Amino acid sequence: MRKIFTLILTILVVGFSWAQKSPDEFLGYKAGERFTPHHKVVAYFEHLASTLPNVELVYYGESVEHRPLFVAIASSPSNISNLEQIRKDNLMRTGLLEGSPSTKVAINWMQYNVHGNEAVATEAAMMTFWEVVNPNNPQGKNWLENQVLIVDPCANPDGKDRYTNWYNQKVNHRLQPDPQSSEHMEPWPGGRPNHYMLDLNRDWAWQTQAETLQRLKLYHDWMPHLFVDYHEQGINEPFYFAPAAKPVHEQVSPFQHEFQEIYGRNTAAKFDENNWQYFTKERFDLLYPAYGDTYPMYNGAIGMTIEKGGSGRAGLGMLNAFGDTVTLVERIIHQHTAGISAVEVTAHHSERLTDEFSKFFRSNSTSPRAKYKSFVVKADQHPDRLAAMLDLLDKNKITYGFAGNKSGLRGLDYMTGKSASFSTTEEDIVINAYQPKSVLAQVLFEPEAILEDSITYDITSWALPFVYGVQAYALETRLDPVKKFDSKPFEPNQLGDKPLTYIAPWNATKHAKYLAALLDQGMRVRMADAEFEINQTTYPAGTLLIMRNGNQYIKDFDQKVVDLANKFEITLAVSNSSFVDKGKDFGSSDISVLRAPKVAIIGGSGTSSLNFGELWYFFEQELDYPVSILEADMLGRADLSKYDVLVLPSGNYLSGSTFTKVHDWIKAGGKAIAIEGAVGMFADKEGFSLSMFDSEDDKKAYQKSSSDVAKSERIEPYTDRERMGISTSAAGAIFEVKLDPTYALNFGMGNKYYTLKNNGRRYAYLNNGVNAGIIPSLDSYRFGFIGNKLKPQMKESMVYGVEYQGRGQIIYMVDNPMFRSFWEAGKLFMANAIFVVGN
Which one-letter DSSP state was computed for residue 555? Predict the structure, then answer.
């Protein structure tokens, strides 16, 4: 019987080894001969999962364009049979799940192709995964004895296929490395972003995109110990791997530093053996919390970025600046080698990885590295904004509770940037460092990251109270919740007696969603232009009024108004009279009628694809409001009279006759919204009052300052030129913007707003227009890096303004209120610009 069993087992094992195919065998071409479309990648991993007993696929969702999102999991047969226990044991180490772990297996997650046109990554993923799971590779079996390998071969399949399909149409039959050949000139918007043209590698903490949101749910099911994110950089660069560059966030633990060094030296040895060039400790830092290396770091893992020179331009092969042809074959082998190094070091250090991971979560709340230990958010001013912020905390598994009635507290007031005394109420929220997600909570709430080096790869300030526009305090001491948070269920509006008017608030993004839905239903909606009082309740300017008058022909009017309010969880007030106690009666001509505008966004060559994507996503996925897309190079032939609003993303694409055409359209009654770089297209132009400077003296002073910087660069050491250059740049500096709350652009915003300044542009106050949002003095600066030469220029500058041209207007947004779709407080600016200004 034993001989028969052994024979059957041998046949099964041999059968499995015959069944599996390498990527080359399965796809029918050698790695590097072409780019593989996503459906074939899926088919290959399904092939491995169906023929190997130690490989599983987990489908965690789908992309916007309905391509499958999945990971492949591999380990030893005994680990695979015990996979669920390994997963739960690991969550026990974090405290996210109660219990004591009984297993000690390292979890290594490797993510590829989060940027679609960095397409070498998926090809390398197939090669690396095959080498690890190949039954004929005894090394692979050893690697998997004490680790679970999770591979996401393509985190951005929509961008990947956008690039692959384009490149396969343009590629020459013979290798053509000429950089000017069309196959190396990827058109707008490129394959880097996802469907909505947002950068998924800057979305981790915010989870605004479908791909990120679905992936993070799976991430939190596993909480890996190592997370390696594979990228490409410019073709003239060799290869980058950890250790990371400075600044490294102060919350990164000593072991996380050490393991990056361990990995770096192991990978360097492999590259040295092959005489391949590389660099470490440069350019790619560990600060901004929404990257594929930093977010895992703040969740206890060893996060690492891998960058091979090449990217979308390189294609199958292209000449670099040194005259060498960088081929796809070379790029695949280099990334494959870096991947095998990650598998090796995980196997060799498995026990220590799990031990240090446990230690991270045991000691993170008592770490002396962070200054602030507790954060209080006031609940009385903007409950809907607070609710949106708590939703983000839930997505990140950050816990919070009710603060209770307490007095005599002291902490940093985010709004003023100064220490202040305050008290709390039963409804206020407290988030502290004494929880499993301690480090991530501290990072997301810290008023400002401490910079050990001011040359950074991204923004330097992102504190959630500014993101959501809520009053908050940061405390250096522990403050525990008195009670677990228990959200009050929304009490749906009831359809009762039919009132003359439904009254809805206007101070959060969901109120804009409600307005968009009402207008899309063909309803006439009015807005109060000033504060009023009725039924002993005071309502601010911007309050929505949905009146029976004007909507009498809407079928099921009351039902639709109430159902939509319930959908967005908005509590309605009602009135049976248009006569108010204070303010303007509802029939006054000062009560604006908000008509449904026909909107177009300009896209295409010359526009920022990222800013365009933020706007497109806002209309389609947040407002759910119809919008047309006009290509910039088609504007000359477009009939602009069909649109009420043109949204102009950052960029430089209006000139000559096209500029004149848009200007004429504005004067005829159109409304243009210019964002960030697009504002400059109207500056110092004849017929416009927008200017960088109030006077020639101001202009000369600015030019002198710039000249001084240039001169200093000439006399400073050459190696300091980059450091000198940042003196005129901004990297996410937060300024308090003074608002005029009586003006339509600011309805629902209050009298101040905290802008995220990512550019060095400044404009003088408008002489002929409305200065709706200004930076009056340098006292308005709060946190984040801004160069010492640029900062003084920000005083007495306009950030948001409206200039009237004929019967129309142009709205200037010097700073982008839609930044990466996560700067929630700015979205009401855009809604006011679209629906309210000019009505």
Answer: T
Q: Are 261 and 243 in contact (CB under 8 A)?
A: yes
The pTM of the whole model exceeds 0.90: yes
Query: Which whole number is the average pLDDT over 481-506?
Result: 93
Identify the band that residue 17 occupies on the pLDDT scale cut at 50, 70 and 90: very low
What are the contacts of 634-638 at 24+ separation with CB within 8 A? 634/604, 635/602, 635/661, 635/662, 636/661
| CA-based nearest residue to 326, from 32, 111, 29 | 32
Amino acid symbol at 256: Q
DSSP conformational letter for 651? B
Token pair recorded at residue 218: 């799976």
Phi then psi for residue 139, to 5 deg, are: -60, -45
| Domains recognised in the chain with CATH numbers | 2-364 (3.40.630.10), 370-484 (no CATH), 501-594 (no CATH), 599-836 (3.40.50.880)
pLDDT band with cut points at 50, 70 and 90 for residue 153: very high
Tell me the per-residue pLDDT of 419-446, one tens digit each, with 9 for 90 and over. 999 999 999 999 999 999 999 999 999 9
pLDDT in tens, 373-390: 999 999 988 999 999 999
Contacts of 66 (CB under 8 A, 6+ apart): none
Residue from 282, 218, 285 nearest 248 by CA: 285
**Is the Cβ–Cβ distance between 674 and 811 less than 8 Å?**
yes
Separation between Cα atoms, residue 581 and residue 598, nearest integer Å: 36
- Which residue carries 């649109």 as its tokens? 643
For the chain, the residue count is 839
